[in-house]
Automatic annotation (TrEMBL):
It comes from Paraurantiacibacter namhicola. This is DNA repair protein RadA. DNA-dependent ATPase involved in processing of recombination intermediates, plays a role in repairing DNA breaks. Stimulates the branch migration of RecA-mediated strand transfer reactions, allowing the 3' invading strand to extend heteroduplex DNA faster. Binds ssDNA in the presence of ADP but not other nucleotides, has ATPase activity that is stimulated by ssDNA and various branched DNA structures, but inhibited by SSB. Does not have RecA's homology-searching function. Plays a role in repairing double-strand DNA breaks, probably involving stabilizing or processing branched DNA or blocked replication forks. Pfam families: AAA_25, Lon_C, Zn_ribbon_LapB. ATP binds at G103, D104, P105, G106, I107, G108, K109, S110. The lineage of its organism: Bacteria, Pseudomonadati, Pseudomonadota, Alphaproteobacteria, Sphingomonadales. The middle region has homology to RecA with ATPase motifs including the RadA KNRFG motif, while the C-terminus is homologous to Lon protease. A motif (RadA KNRFG motif) lies at residues 261-265. NCBIfam families: sms (TIGR00416). One of its GO terms (molecular function) is serine-type endopeptidase activity. GO terms for biological process: proteolysis; recombinational repair.
């Protein structure tokens, strides 16, 4: 006869959770059986499992339904005082939103958030900055170096989520809560060390729930893995409203704040900053960072008007072809573009245009450390490769854009008019692209290229 007590199991079984897809396995494996990612399984201690089954159809708290067209107060965005930050967010911080910001160590995440927090605090907003990695004295030292030591920010160093929420529950609700970083947070209701899958998921859930219930904008700083992905469970990216990536090379001064997910604005929007002695400075004209100011044309150089969200950015693509005298295997080296995309483009140039790259080493670089993901860069890369192979420079002040198919056709890309206007604004006089470019812009001569052999003829003609 059952006495009414719940008997816990004697020993919970170990389980391993994939940090990429969230699948569960009862033994560790080098490769996840579901998503095929390597070294993503980490041990997760499950909650105590009771042997008695529970009926979830009763005993809960009734929820309230509202109509979709019910009147509501529109949420007003709060400006961070940094136009580039606001642009990446879609116009500013939305009250009650949860933002996850990732980036390499030392890239400037804490610096950017401290500058934004200082601007909001000076504007009369209540800002709370909780650091789990630095002591308050270290944060104050950075603020002094940035010139924000006098900003009325509530600063604390803590890692206990219970302590943080208890303190915030007694004080006035802040307009912005910054947690730096979520991997250092710990909940005493969950087993495991800080940074484990269960701890990161549980701590983020409690903080996000507080932000939603109190209309407080929440920013969670996240560590990244060696592959550049945000560390922890992939479900963390589904829980938040905005996922941002702070990117850049330490050898270059520029930094790019990229929006990867945004429930309140455009995806793939970017904000561009430059690292200076006084912190991060906004770059109003990003194209100036990625273009060289040479006066004479150079073979193997083409300018591509890339599109990041709604922002056009002109970048320079550089190619170098080195003929090999011996029978050594030629190298293919790419910086800032996809290796597979370059291999495909070289195959098309050899098959459709009769060019020979099999006995030459090919080096491709996107200047300024910029990384291209726009498929419209195909024509600019092809122009740079043909120019380097023929050792003939492309026309001065010319821009190239268009997607190249396996048949050698130059296909249209989105927002051709926007790309042309950005090129014309920066003094470019010629542009080459697909026949279906949507707009023509005054001040810039546009020439259409329907197939790749026409590009080769144009470059060879000089």
């Amino acid at each position: 006869m059952c006495s009414g007590y719940l008997y816990p199991m004697a020993k919970p079984k170990k389980r391993f959770v994939c940090q990429a897809c969230g699948s569960v396995s009862h033994r560790w494996q080098g490769q996840c059986p579901d998503c095929a990612e390597w070294n993503t399984l980490s041990e997760d201690v499950p909650a105590t499992v009771f042997s008695q089954k529970h009926d979830l159809s009763s005993g809960g708290r009734p929820i309230e339904f509202v109509k979709l067209d019910a009147p509501s107060v529109p949420l007003e965005r709060r400006s961070t005082g940094l136009a580039e930050f606001d642009r990446a967010l879609g116009g500013g911080l939305v009250p009650g939103s949860a933002i996850l910001m990732g980036g390499d160590p030392g890239i400037g995440k804490s610096t950017l958030l401290l500058q934004a927090a200082a601007n909001l605090a000076r504007a009369g907003q209540d800002i709370v900055y909780v650091s789990g990695e630095e002591a308050p004295g270290q944060v104050r030292m950075r603020a002094k170096r940035l010139g924000h030591a006098d900003a009325p920010i509530r600063l604390a160093s803590a890692t206990g989520v219970r302590d943080i929420l208890t303190t915030l529950g007694k004080d006035a609700r802040p307009a912005l809560l910054i947690i730096d970083s979520i991997q250092t947070m710990h909940s005493d209701t969950i087993e495991g060390a800080p940074g484990t899958v269960s701890q990161v998921r549980g701590c983020a859930f409690e903080l996000i729930r507080y932000a939603k219930e109190n209309g407080c904008a929440l920013v969670l700083v996240g560590h990244v893995t060696k592959d550049g992905n945000i560390a922890g469970p992939r479900v963390l990216e589904h829980m938040v409203d905005v996922v941002m990536s702070f990117e850049g090379e330490r050898s270059h001064q520029f930094r790019i704040l990229r929006s990867l997910k945004n429930r309140f604005g455009a995806v793939d929007e970017i904000g561009v900053f430059a690292m200076a002695a006084k912190g991060l400075e906004e770059v109003a004209n990003p194209s100036s960072l990625f273009l060289t100011g040479r006066d004479e044309p150079v073979a193997g150089s083409a300018v591509f008007p890339a599109l990041e969200g709604t922002r056009p950015v002109l970048v320079e693509v550089q190619a170098l072809i080195v003929r090999l005298q011996s029978g050594a295997t030629p190298r293919r080296s790419v910086v800032g573009w996809e290796n597979s995309r370059l291999a495909m483009l070289l195959a098309v140039l050899e098959s459709r245009c009769g060019l020979n790259f099999s006995t030459a080493e090919v080096y491709l670089n996107v200047s300024g450390g910029y990384r291209l993901s726009d498929p419209g860069a195909d024509l600019a890369v092809a122009a740079a490769l043909v120019s380097a192979l023929a050792d003939k420079p492309l026309p001065m002040r010319s821009a190239w854009f268009g997607e190249v198919s396996l048949a050698g056709e130059v296909r249209p890309v989105s927002h051709g008019g926007l790309r042309l206007r950005e090129a014309a604004k920066l003094g470019f006089t010629q542009a080459f692209g697909p026949e279906e470019a949507d707009d023509r812009v005054s001040g810039i001569a546009y020439q259409s290229l329907s197939i790749l052999p026409k590009l080769v003829d144009r470059v060879m003609a000089g």
